[in-house]
Amino acid sequence: xxxxxxxxxxxxxxxxxxxxxxxxxxxxxxxxxxxxxxxxxxxxxxxxxxxxxxxxxxxxxxxxxxxxxxxxxxxxxxxxxxxxxxxxxxxxxxxxxxxxxxxxxxxxxxxxxxxxxxxxxxxxxxxxxxxxxxxxxxxxxxxxxxxxxxxxxxxxxxxxxxxxxxxxxxxxxxxxxxxxxxxxxxxxxxxxxxxxxxxxxxxxxxxxxxxxxxxxxxxxxxxxxxxxxxxxxxxxxxxxxxxxxxxxxxxxxxxxxxxxxxx
Length: 263
Fold this sequence. Notes:
Blueprint: H1 2-24, H2 28-35, E1 37-42, E2 45-46, E3 50-52, E4 58-59, H3 61-73, E5 76-81, H4 87-92, E6 98-103, E7 113-120, E8 123-128, E9 145-148, H5 152-160, E10 166-169, H6 172-180, E11 186-190, H7 191-200, E12 207-214, E13 217-222, H8 226-241, H9 244-253
Parallel strand pairs: 1-5, 1-6, 9-10, 9-11
Antiparallel strand pairs: 2-3, 3-4, 6-13, 7-13, 8-11, 8-12
């Protein structure tokens, strides 16, 4: 009997040691619900996804999407403003729980973060004045093209035209300002964002030159948080069925939600 008890005690001790790391590392979904707050990184300079209104309040498609997430979780929402290049670093250093800032998927990014199902449909392209005869990456020549560093358009443009005169800025607002002021002849940006820019800057031409790629937006989280990812996918599926995402597309993107490609 003593031998049996000693063996049982040893098994229990080993089991406790194995389970301890799992218990110490709470899963992110449970952690958010336990704390009662979800921290979401968003843009403050990329209308209509995220920008500051006249009252200096954040508004836009991604802001409303973050509110939808917080409401469905039953927690408070903490919005964290980030430039494009800081979206993944903020996730990796646990400054935010998730990123909802018009991020499109790439294989390189997937080495660092996990992507939810797509929640918004957009595309990336190059724009400039009507007088510029640019119809592809091969036509860029000596024309300087500006892009926000770390964005998908930066990655695609660099691969497409590595020898082009690419001006990379720290954030989207600076990239737009460089184009508006004439420091760059072309702008690589999200087509939905450019529609909004054209409305706000009627004296500047935003003529479509060529497409870079279709770029649906995804919520991103840290790798390994599978429970949170499954929950986000469920929310996006539900919001597609009940019309919430279509409503956001009509409100912010100017039209109905098109069918999005599966992951």
